[in-house]
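Provenance and format

Records in this collection were gathered into a single text stream. Each protein contributes a sequence line and a token line. The two records reproduced below are adjacent in the stream.
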Amino acid sequence: MTASVSADMTRGSIAARLVGMTLPMIAGFLAVITFEFADGWFVSRLGTPALAALSFSFPVCLTIICLFVGLGIGTGSAVSRAVGRGDAAAARRLATSSLLFSLVVSALISAAGILTVRPLFRFLGAGEELLAGIEAYMTVWYAGVFTVAVPVIAGNALLAVGAARATGLINTFGSVANIVFDPLFIFGWGIFPRWGLAGAAAATVAARFAASLLSLAVLSFRHRLFAPRIRPFSRLLADWRPTAAVGFPAAATHMVGPLALALLIRLASRFGIEAVAAVGVGSRIDPFIFVVFWSLSDVMVVFTGQNLGAGRVSRIAAATSVSMAFVLGWGLASAVLLYFLGAGIGRNFSAVPGVVGAVGEYFRVMPWSYAGVGAVCVSAAVFNGLNLPLRGAVLSVLHLVLLFVPLAWAGASLAGLAGMFGGVAVSYWLAGAAGAAWVFKSLRRG
């Protein structure tokens, strides 16, 4: 039995391959983001304290999700290189082992997370009036961490063999299920009890569990990439190594984003609960723009991996040029659009004037960072596909420590909330330029 490969990315038009793989990914990611948006909207009906509690929870949840995104990237990188070499047996073995590895990691996170909810969120600046709601939400969410891991790992294994459409459909299925479950569990419609914030987490876990079952079915029966069997632990460790070697640095790269968001929320708390709620709203709108960056980046990991395995480095350089030009245009166009729509977005989330004003301030300034965000995403993706994940991690960590934190703090001190957002935008432009230069220099060296 051999793995089924849907798309060979080592031949044909580069632009056509990138577009053909990215569009289904965008559709799937949009479904996920729509669920996040709906989740925030439903919770906002519970009041500003509930929305603020969810805003505090979001970067922590996103950090954990990013860990599994990183392990998924490690899976995609390892499997795509095996596909590029024409080794279908290795591709299947690596995909299966990566799923088992993700379950081990998720069990450790669940145990540690449930035990540390209150001290962690006190550290992040949550007041006592918010901690009960945060604890109710996070306890349920932590218990279902494994339902985050399985669809992400399976989706990246499918993407590595060119099955972008299957990955997008799985994401869409999970998101639609979540939107259906949200009002049932949050507000207690029909026979369901009213669980409030805990219900939002329960809806997410239930939907992701359904998506996990679907992803395993597609992986097993459609693409023959999941074949669990008892193997010596030493062999499992050997298979986990290439996934972990790329996955953990890639996870560190992706975790910088939610960590930066957590720091931004902490800085925003200096300006009141309305500012915190505004950052929470903004962090749910931003992904509608970032979906293009994330989808293209996921494709670039496996495009780079397949072409590296086949020895076609020139195709990687050409694809990187196309991708960088696109994220620049997309980021700038989005900034112009949101500059005019920001206040209206705020009014859809809250009737409190302070919240509406802070949301408008967010969208007048923060979207100018988007092009830089896209360049950082593409740079990290190419490094991961080249099996150089530490470079992407270094780029992201240095951005956070040397640029994001100092510039956001300085901007907040000099010009208040708008200054803080402006400092963030400048930091991403500088990091994006540095990342693009480093990637092209690495490709020239072969």
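Adjacent record:
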Amino acid sequence: MDYAARCVRCNKSFTEEELKGASCCPGCGTKDIPCDPKKDASILINVHDLRIMGIWAENYANSVDNKHLDDVNHSSLKELITIITDRIEVQLKAQGLYTPLTLVKELKQLQTEHPGAQLFRDGKEEV
């Protein structure tokens, strides 16, 4: 099938026909800018590189979200980073290379291995 767009949040793909008249994702309703499926790429990158980018992206997204706590129109960037890193982690797991790509996920893994571990960011418990 020839898809015209894929939602960055729900990961559903849509044809031009399905998008006619749409002002948001027909699947989940987000107004985030969709991906162009024709621009999917396969790249060679190290898992450690992805982990660094994921941790920095999550940290930045958290700071942006904190600035928009009272903005009902703000779409959570931290949630979006989690969605994207989840998709990448599934691919890594299929290759036997799984590692958490965000600090929160890494700390959750540590908390499972070491019950009682906690993460606080800006005075609020995060995990």
